[in-house]
Amino acid sequence: MRWIKNIFSVVILTFLVGCNTDVKKTTKDFYYWRSNYSINPAEKKVVDSLKSKNVYVRFFDVDKKGGKISPVGVIQNFNAEQLNVRYIPTVFITNRTFINTTPDQIKILAKDVFNFLSETAERGKLESFDEIQIDCDWTKSTRENYFSFLSELKYISRKKLSATLRLHQVKFKDREGVPPLDKMVLMCYATENPTDQSDKNSILDLDIAKDYLENLNNYPIKLDVALPIYSWAILTNHLGDIKLINSFSEKDLHGKPVKKIKDGLYEVQDDFFVENFYVSKGFKIKIENISSELLINTKRFIDQKLPYNYHVIYYHLDSKFLKTIPTEL
Q: Sign of the C-alpha dihedral, residues 273, 279, 282, 283?
């Protein structure tokens, strides 16, 4: 009987080990994408408990309007002392910024971005940083200018330079090009356009992601992976016009005059305000969110594609959505 018990114990142990290694344990970092920098106790507790090493803070956006390129949406009240982490200043640049941009403008832009980024860091008591990240959804028509900008920024800053990578830039890398970088972050979300009124989850649909990332293992740059933990509301009026309300969950509809049509879809029964936006009777509100199970299944798929260890970066650090983070990862 003893040998039967021993065999049974070995089988159980093997099963448990197999379950534990089904999803690779990884370092968990965060993006901070709000316009006002303020870390509350719940957010600090999660960062500390997960032993997060890096926080990517969006310092500002860059956009071009009327032919003029300028920073917009500059972060307010950034203070690096609020968290004991390595900060990576991050800048979002619109794709249109690089349309019909001359080589001289590219050089000026790289210099201006670095100077303004450095000033923002200094104001926020970030005495030193060794990496900059650029977020831009470049396309075939802008890749030459964008890649030139990255090269110029890396040369001027003398810093490590990373950039974000969208799903379509993986699937169509031969058409859209590969940036001159040593590291990128795969943004594993935004699989659908929320204005398309599809039944699919526009934040992350794993079947769509799998199609775009079929050849992820062949991407020539080492990647970290960003996963979503946010939710939003897609508001549709009588004319079919759509408004996207960020950082919105079903809890925000509690006590509101709405009727549930099906999971995640509501019809407004009486006029009221949603995030300072007036909604009328008959409007539809679709809530899209991310489950812990979806994150686990997504990471399990990516683990099969990337043979090396990588960081998971959650988008983004907001106490409203931190319970979405699965303990299994």
A: negative
* Same domain, residue pair 87 and 34: yes
Segments in the chain forming alpha helices (H): 2-20, 41-49, 103-123, 143-157, 167-171, 173-176, 206-212, 292-305
Q: What is the pLDDT of residue 274?
A: 83
Same domain, 189 and 295: yes
Q: Has residue 18 been placed in a domain?
A: no
Kindly state whether residues 93 and 43 are assigned to the same domain: yes
The 10s digit of each residue's pLDDT in 242-257 is 999 999 999 999 999 9
Give pLDDT, residue 329. 82
Q: Is the pLDDT of residue 15 over 80?
A: no
3-state secondary structure of 328: coil
User: What does the alpha-carbon distance between residue 159 and residue 181 come to, in Å, rounded to a whole number?
Assistant: 12
Question: What domain count does the chain have?
Answer: 2
Stated pTM of the model? 0.91
Q: In terms of residue numbers, what domain contains 238? A: 231-289
Alpha carbons 227 and 172: distance in angstroms, whole number: 21
Is residue 125 domain-resident?
yes
Q: Cα–Cα distance between 288 and 248 in angstroms, integer?
A: 9
pLDDT digits (tens, 9 = 90+) for 283-293: 999 999 999 99
CATH at residue 170: 3.20.20.80
